């Protein structure tokens, strides 16, 4: 069955419908017009071909948003090129993002069927046919792993669970030893948390909230088996969620909205960093513009862009010359671009460390079948708020978020996303035959992640007299071990770049996203990506501009 046609193939209705900001690309200088309101403004058709810009940022996720805002505040005009759409125009149903239980083309990036992370239930796949469209969630397939990523103005912030976790200081110090942890915890983590709009759940409300019964059951089981647990802050507005539960506002998290976008309640980057960035009048966001090449030109860099329609087809190609280029296309996007530019000789002097040291943050998912007296509730908030902390277990460190399973009916399922300390690292390589970049991660490499997660859930199952669900990730498949939400690394700080993200070999080229982090953050990563970007851009502005 096909869902409604969200937009006719080849048309560019939403691109054309977005109000175009006044934009001058004259005399080698770009001037954006101040954004109004509280949401980032983007243009799908900016007149940028042939322009020269002081700074071009590739991608509008966490790293890109921080770079754009801080550069603009320092007086630098910035062009952001974002391959995904500007999610500001409602579809035919009046909503910007599609319903979770009835996904349409808006859900996935250029796919004909959905590819749900938890894609099976009771013996069968419940993926659905959809119309091909430049939707908000990409499930990018490599030989041994699918990597989920956000596509659009706001990057991963549009689709993620909003869990805003600052890692324990000793864990951060072990992961990025070249970074001064004291500065991070005194200055950059607080700065990131504040600008992201991180808030904490009202713990009294939590104890009785119908929508968090699943989390209370998860906590009870963790406690009964002797595991530590912790509340997890979020960028979803918990006060708004209270009103959702009281039925006084439009439901979003309580309507199961998360991986295909939230129509309300969430402080995604388009409402925080990017709104502030375009509000300076110095930042222009070119949506549906994919960077395809970067090469030296004069004293700067020539950047090639493909403007794409909602079928992913190239409408036109453009060239911009930028004095400085910030790679913020995400761990995978940045690594793919740099690895192919190095292999093809356009940026041939990049370090051999480019493309190396990639990890999946040890992600593995699993579900448990509870007894009838431990129902997880028919109404579940799509925003997790609690995690089981077993990182101190030297035999298999793990931090497991108690995840919702908002099916709209009582499933008795307790679902978890475990972040484990998987030491294996993969690399990206360019295939000159296909012209594509592959990632050599193998599914079997997740065995140590499964083993670490089992140290928690085998114990809980034994204590509770329960079993694993084997119907959520395939037919008789217990572990969701072939995908990740948390790609990290590929252009690691102090290896492929200097200690602030400057790429070796090319003055004026920077990496400022999750590619800098060597494969693991010990918790969910976006607060760390944001805080590290804050640290690096401050130094770059002070020393390089
Ligand atoms: P990212 O946010 O991915 O932004 C990169 C941007 O670059 C994207 O908008 C791309 O479309 C764009 N792009 C890529 N290539 C190009 C190109 N060639 N030209 C132009 N644009 C390009 O990067 N993390 C948490 O901390 N807490 C959570 O609760 C959480 N839940 C998640 C749930 C899901 C379903 C997913 C997919 C991720 C989740 N994450 C979570 C991970 C988090 O969103 C991710 O680590 C960050 O978004 C990565 O930030 P970056 O700035 O590296």
UniProtKB/TrEMBL annotation:
One protein family per Pfam: GMC_oxred_C_1st
Record EC number: 1.1.3.6, 5.3.3.1
InterPro entries: Cholesterol_Oxidase, FAD/NAD-bd_sf, GMC_OxRdtase_N, GMC_OxRtase_C, TAT_signal
Keyword Iron set for record: no
Protein name: Cholesterol oxidase
Pathway in which the depicted protein is active: Steroid metabolism; cholesterol degradation
Residue ranges of every copy of the Glucose-methanol-choline oxidoreductase N-terminal domain listed in the record: 147-339
Cofactor(s) listed in the protein's UniProt record: FAD
Keywords assigned by UniProt, alphabetized: Cholesterol metabolism, FAD, Flavoprotein, Isomerase, Lipid metabolism, Oxidoreductase, Steroid metabolism, Sterol metabolism
């Amino acid at each position: 069955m096909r869902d409604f046609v969200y937009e006719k193939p080849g048309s560019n209705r939403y691109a054309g419908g977005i109000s175009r900001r006044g934009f001058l690309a004259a005399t080698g200088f770009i001037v954006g017009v101040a954004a109004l309101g509280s949401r980032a403004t983007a243009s799908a058709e900016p007149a940028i071909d042939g322009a020269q810009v002081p700074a071009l940022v590739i991608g509008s996720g966490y790293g890109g948003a921080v770079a754009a805002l801080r550069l603009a505040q320092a007086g630098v005009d910035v062009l952001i090129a974002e391959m995904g759409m500007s999610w500001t125009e409602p579809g035919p149903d009046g909503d910007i993002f599609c319903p979770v239980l009835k996904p349409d083309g808006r859900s996935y990036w250029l796919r004909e069927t959905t590819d749900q992370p938890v894609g099976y239930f009771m013996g069968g796949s419940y993926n659905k046919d959809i119309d091909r469209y430049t939707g908000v969630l990409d499930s990018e397939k490599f030989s041994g792993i699918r990597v989920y990523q956000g596509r659009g103005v706001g990057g991963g912030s549009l689709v993620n669970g909003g869990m805003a976790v600052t890692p324990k200081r000793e864990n951060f110090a072990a992961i990025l030893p070249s970074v001064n942890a004291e500065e991070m915890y005194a200055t950059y983590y607080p700065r990131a948390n504040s600008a992201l709009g991180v808030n904490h759940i009202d713990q009294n409300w939590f104890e009785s909230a119908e929508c968090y019964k699943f989390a209370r059951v998860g906590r009870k089981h963790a406690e009964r088996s002797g595991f530590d647990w912790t509340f997890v802050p979020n960028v979803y507005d918990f006060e708004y969620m209270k009103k959702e539960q009281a039925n006084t506002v439009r439901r979003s998290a309580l309507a199961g909205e998360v991986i295909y976008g939230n129509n309300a309640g969430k402080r995604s980057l388009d409402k925080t960093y990017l709104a502030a960035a375009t509000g300076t009048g110095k930042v222009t966001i070119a949506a549906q513009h994919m960077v395809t090449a970067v090469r030296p030109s004069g004293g700067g860099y020539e950047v090639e862009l493909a403007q794409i329609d909602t079928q992913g087809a190239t409408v036109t190609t453009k060239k911009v010359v930028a004095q400085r280029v910030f790679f913020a296309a995400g761990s995978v996007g940045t690594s793919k671009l740099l690895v192919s530019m190095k292999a093809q000789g356009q940026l041939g002097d990049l370090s051999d460390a480019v493309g190396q040291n990639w990890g999946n943050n040890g992600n593995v998912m699993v579900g448990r079948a509870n007894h009838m007296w431990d129902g997880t509730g028919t109404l579940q908030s799509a925003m997790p708020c609690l995690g089981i902390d077993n990182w101190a277990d030297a035999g298999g460190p793990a931090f497991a978020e108690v995840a919702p399973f908002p099916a709209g009916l009582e499933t008795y399922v307790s679902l978890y996303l475990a972040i484990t300390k998987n030491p294996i690292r993969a690399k990206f390589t360019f295939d000159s035959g296909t012209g594509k970049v592959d990632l050599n991660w193998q599914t079997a490499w997740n065995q140590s992640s499964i083993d670490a997660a089992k140290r928690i859930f085998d114990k809980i199952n034994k204590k509770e007299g329960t079993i694993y669900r084997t119907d959520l990730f395939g037919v008789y498949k217990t572990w969701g071990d072939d995908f990740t939400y948390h790609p990290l690394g590929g252009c690691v700080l102090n290896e492929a770049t200097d200690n602030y993200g400057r790429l070796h070999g090319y003055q004026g080229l920077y990496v400022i996203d999750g590619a800098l982090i060597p494969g693991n953050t010990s918790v969910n990563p976006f607060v760390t990506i944001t805080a590290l970007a804050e640290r690096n851009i401050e130094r770059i502005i002070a020393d390089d501009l």
